[in-house]
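Bump. Still looking for PqqD family protein C-alpha cells.
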Amino acid sequence: MSWDLYFANLGRVLRITGCPEVVDALRQALPGWSVEVFDAKGESPAIKLWRERDGYRQYSPELPRGLRLGTPVEAACSLIADLVAAYTEHHPELIGLHCASVEIDGRLVVFPASHRAGKSTLTAAFAAAGYKVFGDDVLALTAEGLGQGLGIAPRLRLPLPAGLAAEMVSFVQQYTGPADTRYSYLVPPAGNLAHHGETRPLGAVVLLARDAGITTPQLSRLAPGDGLLQLLCQNFAHDAPSELLVERLLPLMEDTPCLLLHYSEPLAAVEAVQAALREPSLLAVPCARDEEPVSAPSPRCMGDEPWMPGATVLEYSLEEELFLVEASDGAIHRLNPSGRLVWQLLRQESLSAAELAELLSEYYAQPLEEVLADVQELLGRLANVGLVRSVATSGAATVTLAQP
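Sorry for the wait, here they are.
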C-alpha cells in the first residue's frame, strides 16, 4: 500500500510505499509540523521511499540515484533532510540556517553548527531545563529577520556522552521518540518545541567549543564578524548570491551579540548562558578567535612596488571590520580593522608595502619594522586571493567598486 503525505505550508511532496513503520517514525520525529496522510493517488511526488529487501530505498531531487536506508529512523532522518530542502525551495524568501536554536526571554539564542561541538545535546539540555526549543539543526530565517521553527524534534547521537547530569539523562529517557542504534529523537513535552512556522527575533549567536577539561562553563564576547562568518558558512541557501546573504545577515549581527561558550556538561552550560544573557557583566573579557589555517603559506610582498585593488567587490561594514564580496564569483573575505584600513588606503591610491607601513606605524604608534612585516604578510594574503595586484603587472587596468 502507498501513502501520500501532505505537510503544512509545503503540500504533497512525499510518497511512502509498503512501510507504515517509516510513516510512524517520521510523524513522531515531526511533532510540531502538521502532516496529513492519504492513500496515494495520481503521479508520484518528487520525494519517494519504498521497501527494498530488509531496508528502504529513497529517491528525491537531492538523491537522483537513490539512497539505501537500513532502519525506520535512518529513513526518517533522510526524509527530513529532503523535506527541509523542499521547504526552503518552496519558500525562497527564507534562508535555512544550519544551527540549533532555543528561546530565552522571548528571543532566540542561535548555536551555529560546528563539528562535534554538541549542539544537539545542548539543545536537549535546554529542553530538560524547561526552555522552548526551535530546533537542533535547522532554523529558517524570514525576510523580516525572524527565526522560524520547523517543528522538527531534536536528534541525539547514540550512545549519549559520558558525564551527563543525572536529571538530563532521566529527561532524555522519559521523552525518547523513534530510535535505533545510532540516533534517538527527543520529543519534548507539549510547549517545549516550537510549532512549525512559529517565529521569534534573534537574541544572540553563541559559538560552541566543547572541552572535557572545562569544569565551569565560560562565556566571552566575540566580534560580530565571528557570528556573521559562521552564519554565512552554515546556511542552506547554496544558490543564493553571496551579496544577498550578507545583506540579509549583516543587519542582524549589528544588533545581536556574539559569544563564545567553552563548556563540558550541557546543563551547567544552560545555566551559564541564561545567566550571562540576563546579566552581561558576567561575561568574560572579549577574546579573539583562532584564525582558520590557510592551505598554503602566503608570500610576503617585498620591494617598493605599489599595489592596487585587484577585484570588483561589494563592501559591507560591521563595526570596525569589513567584509568584501567578489562580484565575479561571490567569494567572501573578512578584513579586521587594520586590514580594512589597508584596503581603504589602497582604494584611494596605489601604495607600496613600505608606504603603507609608515602610515599604519604612525596611526597605531607601533614600531615600523613590526608593522612592515605585518603589512607584507597581509598584502601577500590579499594577492593570493586576487584582492590586490601589483601596479607593475596591471598595466592600465582599473578597478571598480560594485554598488551593494
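The chain has a mean pLDDT of 89.

Edit: fixed formatting.
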